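Reopening this one. Same input as before:
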Amino acid sequence: MMKHLLLVLALSAGLSASAQTRQIARSVPEACGIPSEAVARFFDSLMVIPRTSIHSVMILRHDKVVAEMYPRPFRDAYPHTLYSCSKTFVSAAVGILVGEGRLKLTDRVASFFPESLPDTLSDGLKAMTVRDLLTMTAGIEPDWNMRSVSTCWVRDYLSKPTGTPGRLFKYDSLCTYLLSAIVQKVSGQTLLCFLRQRVFTPLGIREVQWQVSPEGYNTGGWGLYLQSESMAKFGLLLLHRGMWKGRRLIPAEWVDEMMKKQTPEGQPSYGYQMWPCPRKGSARADGAYGQYIFVIPDKDMVVVVTQSSTFDGSREHHLLWNLLVPEVRDSVLPVHRAAYRRLVSSSQRQLPFAEGSGGINAGLLNHTWTLLPNRLHWKSLSLVGHDGRYTLRITDEEGLVTRIALGYRRWTTTATAAFPAYPIWPKGVFTGIKRRFLVSASYGSTADGLNVSLHYVNWITPVELVLKPSAGSVSITARMNHEASPFALALSSQGN
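Same output, byte for byte:
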């Protein structure tokens, strides 16, 4: 027994040697009833999903991290934007206020925004409640472009035609945004300040940030910025029905309601800003491009995944529910040395480098390519360098310049104040997020041109560039967040 324990401790130390956050206890999978071979297969399978880049995976059981993976150039210390995973944190804030009697599910939404109401209130708007926002049954047709053309989100949202609330589920991040505004109106604090005091600080989460709308509210439905381990802590909080180290942070009954179906019969299964999972009692926080916090009570497990994917997550879900969870046992297992070492090896992976050989076509060097307005919000590109030392120079629409060192068969990382390429680009300047981003880059040359892979490692967004010289000019295509199809970056000049 002592020999087995010493082996477990030694292997555990080896697995987590590179971790930096470490506020959650670490263990080896077998000590918590999970075969290392099953975890290694799970990691391997996630890594080979087409057009998906895994940024982090954390598997927790019995309040311990039993395995984790941060493929280079990502690291455990890097925070991420969580997209719609943010919504579940908003629900927690609402639940705290409900538990204290400061807010009711039946409160009318219109009552919180007298200054933003249309001149005439429809019956639907009069009837809309806080619960309708929580369940995405507000009765308003989603308008995903509104954030990019308006600076008065509450007013414009409440001015839209409203059907009968509570009947039809229509996923809409503006529902969550209104909940964020309501939390601020009721508590007298921004959503972030409220949650920092009531949840984040008790959990030991210090690095948290949240984007702020043009109206001064935290965006709520997106824009939360956290490390993977902080996501895991929140998952553990939900797993324990709102308790953390003997302290109640969220009412237990509220957590139960968050995780179960709340939408009408015949409508998609949605809780209070969470998605119930097929496994009974389980639910997930779910963000665009594959950001997940899975809470699995019957296995006493939490699984965190951050990534960039073009797909809907069904493949990742299938792997979790069919490859990993069925292997979980109720007792301690003997450590299989070979399987564990394979797991350690698989947890030290890196994302693929840009394809091609070293060196860059001279026709691409020492030119500045001015771009027409584009989805990346870049104004110009240029390449400089020689003898294997090359730099990509990007100027964005704000005039900020980022000089990115390109690595061949390696990742090089550069700091920048320029905001990463981002598929959600609301009108107005982003606030609430500190302007220090890290972008890792690699390059490779082929007969067709230059391939450049960029990963904004403390944000999430990947960008793939292909530059092809053509008759004294260049054609540039890009793909963001591993979209299915690339798009052209049109030039306004031929380079100089």
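So the earlier flakiness isn't reproducible anymore. For the record, Confidence is low (pLDDT under 50) at residues 1-20.
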